[in-house]
Write a structure and sequence with these properties.
By secondary structure, the protein is mostly beta strands. It contains three helices and eleven strands, in the order H-H-E-E-E-E-E-E-E-E-E-E-E-H.
Amino acid sequence: MRVFVVLLALALAPSASLAAGPAMAPGNVIDAAVGDWNKDGKPDLALLAVTSADDMAIGVYLYLREDNGLLKLALAAPDKVWGSAHGGIAGQEPGLKALPNGSIAITEQNSAIGRDRWEQTRTLAYRNGQFVVAGYTFSSYDTVQELPPLNCDLNLLSGKGTLNGKPVAFAARTIALQDWKDEVGSNPGLVICRKK
């Protein structure tokens, strides 16, 4: 726990890299994860934080540890995650998790409002010096059960996955996190994973 607190304090300290991006106040951080993103044996940091007037638009901030032991901002992607922040609606909170293989899972959800309840997770991997969306999962269900549930799990790097338990294939692509858009048709797999 002490290591996590030190890492979080370092990440929130003012730096030239962060000063160039949107302002991030310590109270705006809503989730954090520690892992080895670039597989160099040193702990790195990922943060979700509110950085704009729209508290449903959350930024992703990814840090890599340098040889001198300090964290350096590797990617700032403001307004990249949808969700409810401090004092918002329960059931719409985003989440961040470090995976054992060094990837990062970012989860968004709506389990609170309307009949269309859903959850999506983008799995980030550090490849060739950038953070890319390596995996995408999406599930949804209709609370009045007029529409069938939908479950898909896709590996965007291989172009393979499952849709409601059945194998699917699509054009594989490498998409940097900053280039990802949630609109259907913007990314491979989203047409497969969303109801038409």
